[in-house]
């Protein structure tokens, strides 16, 4: 492609994306739908100019965006937290794959000329959801740390782990397998475990060693390239082993989550992730062959509707079994109703080995693409079910106060810390409004008569809609550092005159919050340590006045004495 053609294609793509994403966001359907529609328009299956005919190559390249997304998720997911999710990962996730795969497989064996084995394999493939779509949507809505969001993530993690056995089954169904395949499988399993171990070793020792050296030398470029090396190494290792690249990136991110450079790493990776994720969704839209859909509209519609319905029913029942409320079960089931990007890989492998024919391949790709395209609508339907179940007594319903006239305190996040601040303000007869993105928390607090409303304050559009210009103070209490930084940044960008206090996990987070506009930030870990030190001194009969003076000295100039100890 010449430079003129490249520039024209880029110009054409950016123009279409700006229109479709703008319209999609305006309709409240999020940016992903707009990117998918843009992909359909600029794809090779639509009349008019198109970006490229090498859709598969573009999609593979853009999957680096998914890799970076999972790496960032891993940075916020410490191993101890992952261990607490084991019931959802191995219980909920495994049962979802097997039951959804079985139901879809039985359906396909009746409506398509497939052997039971092939039908079950395709059923298991379509049972997998889209990690890229779901995680991106949860991040946009600020709900990845919610009860239903963390369970959805656990299911997706198990689905990524299921990649190896599904890929291993394809050659056996093609007839090219031999009785010795079981031996090679065990060798492959040992190889996979070895590669996973290498990711942990590189992430635990080698990468932190390099980051330490480059940080001391103030070598930002080498620091960034070392981070990118770690991500690409982890992705390549898992891809070479037969696992998903996204899983490798997640493991590397989780390994680096304990690093003192984790926030800086995330700040460097975030811009690259956003651009490549957008390109990935465009590439998925380009994969949709409209001729197949137009030639068999009724059959395609039937497949899409029933496959999504089967997944919704299975997910809903399993979510209830695993202790979720009915509302959470509805949200999980509609969120994970689509099929995922792994289907492109498996269908391509099955076609190459003769397991499926060209027509089944085309239909399968169309079904996956359309279910992805319908995801924003599916989520909206789930939200309608949740709200209709509440009826007129919807615990998070009701009109928002007249925010443009509200002159009290706004609390962003109504968890443990937010509730404590709310109680203090209430006891002092100071008016306040609180916003939280966890439905159950909002519902519970509104039943108590608290002025708590549903909303994600990391969403710039939401910040603009609630009109905080006359508020005396905004207190940001969310506990995830990146989430808190986004909230502070959006508030100060929209309402630069509003005073913002923020809760910080540690001194590094405090500095980032101040850098992004917070007027004051309280390092929670530091204050806890000071309180414990004070109690220790008083237990050793040190006079209370002396302890108070010592604490005042340590807090002086915003903990400047202690900053070096927190590096």
Short summary:
This protein has helices spanning 3-26, 30-42, 55-75, 79-84, 86-111, 116-127, 131-141, 147-161, 163-174, 181-216, 220-241, 245-255, 262-286, 290-295, 297-321, 326-335, 342-352, 358-373, 375-390, 416-427, 439-447, 460-466, 481-494, 507-515, 524-539, 544-563, and strands at 409-412, 432-436, 452-454, 473-476, 500-504, 520-523.
General description of the model:
The protein folds into 3 domains: 1-53, no CATH class; 54-174 and 181-389, Na+/H+ antiporter like fold, CATH 1.20.1530.20; 403-566, Rossmann fold (3-Layer(aba) Sandwich). Helices cover 71% and strands 4% of the residues. It is built from 26 helices and 6 strands. The protein has a 6-stranded parallel sheet, sandwiched between helices. Helix 8 (147-161) packs across helix 16. The longest helix is centred in the middle third of the chain and has 36 residues, at 181-216. It starts with a helix and ends with a helix. 45% of the residues are buried.
């Amino acid at each position: 492609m010449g430079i003129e053609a490249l520039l024209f294609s880029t110009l054409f793509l950016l123009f279409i994306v700006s229109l479709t994403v703008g319209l999609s966001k305006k309709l409240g359907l999020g940016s992903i739908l707009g990117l998918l529609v843009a992909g359909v328009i600029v794809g090779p299956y639509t009349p008019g100019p198109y970006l490229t005919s090498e859709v598969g190559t573009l999609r593979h390249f853009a999957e680096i965006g998914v890799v970076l997304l999972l790496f960032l998720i891993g940075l916020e997911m410490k191993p101890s937290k992952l261990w607490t999710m084991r019931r959802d990962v191995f219980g909920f996730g495994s049962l979802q794959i097997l039951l959804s795969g079985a139901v879809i497989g039985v359906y396909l064996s009746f409506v398509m000329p497939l052997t039971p084995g092939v039908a079950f394999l395709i059923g298991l493939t379509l049972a997998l959801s889209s990690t890229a779509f779901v995680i991106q949507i949860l991040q946009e809505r600020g709900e990845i740390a919610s009860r239903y969001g963390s369970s959805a993530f656990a299911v997706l993690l198990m689905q990524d782990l299921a990649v190896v056995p599904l890929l291993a089954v394809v050659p056996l169904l093609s007839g090219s397998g031999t009785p010795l395949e079981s031996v090679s499988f065990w060798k492959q399993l040992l190889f996979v475990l070895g590669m996973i171990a290498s990711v942990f070793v590189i992430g635990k020792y080698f990468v932190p060693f390099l980051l330490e050296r480059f940080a001391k030398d103030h070598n930002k470029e080498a620091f960034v390239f070392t981070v990118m090396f770690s991500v690409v190494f982890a992705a390549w290792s898992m891809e070479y082993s037969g696992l998903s690249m996204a899983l490798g990136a997640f493991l590397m991110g989780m390994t680096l989550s304990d690093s003192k450079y984790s926030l800086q790493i995330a700040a460097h990776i975030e811009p690259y992730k956003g651009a490549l994720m957008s390109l990935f969704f465009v590439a998925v839209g380009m994969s949709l062959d409209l001729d197949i859909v137009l030639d068999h509209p009724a059959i395609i519609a039937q497949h899409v509707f029933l496959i999504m319905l089967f997944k919704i029913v299975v997910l809903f029942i399993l979510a209830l079994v695993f202790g979720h409320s009915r509302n959470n079960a509805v949200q999980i089931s509609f969120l994970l109703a689509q099929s995922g990007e792994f289907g492109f890989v498996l269908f391509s492998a099955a076609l190459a080995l003769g397991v499926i024919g060209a027509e089944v391949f085309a239909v399968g790709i169309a079904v996956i693409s359309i279910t992805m395209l319908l995801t924003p609508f599916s989520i909206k339907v789930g939200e309608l079910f949740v709200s209709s179940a509440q009826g007129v007594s919807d615990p998070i319903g009701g009109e928002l106060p007249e925010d443009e006239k509200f002159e009290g305190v706004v609390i962003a996040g109504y968890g443990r810390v937010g509730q404590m601040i709310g109680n203090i303000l209430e006891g002092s007869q100071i008016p306040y409004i609180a916003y939280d993105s966890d439905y159950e928390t909002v519902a519970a607090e509104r039943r108590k008569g608290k002025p708590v409303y549903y909303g994600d304050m990391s969403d710039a559009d939401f910040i603009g809609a609630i009109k905080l210009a006359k508020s005396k103070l905004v207190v940001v209490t969310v506990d995830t550092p990146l989430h808190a930084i986004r909230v502070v940044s959006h508030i100060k960008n929209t309402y630069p005159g509003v005073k913002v206090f923020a809760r910080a996990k540690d001194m590094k987070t405090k500095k980032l919050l101040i850098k992004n506009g917070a007027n004051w930030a309280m390092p929670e870990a530091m204050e806890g340590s000071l309180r414990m030190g004070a109690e220790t001194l008083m237990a050793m009969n040190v006079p209370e006045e002396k302890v108070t003076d010592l604490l005042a000295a340590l807090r002086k100039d915003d903990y400047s004495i202690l900053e070096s100890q927190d590096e």
